[in-house]
Design goal:
Helix content: 40-55%
Distance between the termini: 42 Å
Shape: globular
Number of strands: 8
Low-confidence stretches: 1-20
CATH class: Alpha Beta
Largest sheet: 4 strands, mixed
Strand order of the largest sheet: 2-1-7-8
Oligomer: single chain
Number of helices: 8
Mean pLDDT: 89
CATH topology: Glutaredoxin
Strand content: 15-25%
Radius of gyration: 18 Å
CATH architecture: 3-Layer(aba) Sandwich
Length: 173
């Protein structure tokens, strides 16, 4: 009887661990910056809004793909940043705040990352030194996103032009 209980407990635990592995371990911007300082890793920032249909679609498709989830959780500190967040965020010695504008507003950090071109969803990539490399605006389907994730991981973006990288990329999907 003890063996059955032990097996049942381990089975339940393994399902729970597996369920956690099937989703991205999102962090706040501040958490990612702090973690990257201690253990350098690139940072990927998903900039979204609550009203954005393409953002919701990306959450339901691209960010649910097992290959994408595993790759992001392994190689990046992933951040969810609401482009209309109301709380202050400290970054590089500056405080970024919510900026009211008409019925809606925007968060100054999101605007800075997107260089004033507020487009949702947007995906930004920071290197291990926490410097912005690139912001990629728009919905990204799984196969294209897999290539982009691989390109900004390690030093691929430094050593290989995008077209060459894309041509030689081997998908895990």
């Amino acid at each position: 009887m003890k063996k059955i209980i032990v097996v049942a407990v381990f089975t339940i635990i393994s399902f729970g661990v597996r369920a956690q592995d099937d989703k991205i371990n999102w962090l706040t911007f501040e958490q990612a910056m702090e973690m990257s300082e201690k253990d350098p890793k690139p940072i990927m920032v998903d900039i979204y809004t609550d009203w954005c249909g393409w953002c919701k679609k990306m959450d339901k498709t691209t960010y649910k793909n097992k290959v994408i989830v595993d790759y992001i959780n392994t190689h990046y500190y992933p951040v969810k940043l609401n482009g209309e967040a109301k709380h202050d965020i400290m970054f590089q010695g500056k405080t970024f705040s919510y900026q009211a504008q008409g019925r809606r507003g925007y968060h100054q950090l999101a605007a800075a990352i997107m260089r004033g071109q507020l487009s949702y969803p947007s995906t930004a990539f920071f290197n291990t030194e926490r410097q912005l490399l690139q912001n990629v605006p728009g919905y990204l389907e799984e196969k294209r996103f897999e290539k982009i994730l691989a390109y900004f991981n390690k030093d691929n973006y430094k050593n290989t032009p995008w077209l060459e990288f894309e041509k030689n990329f081997k998908s895990a999907m």
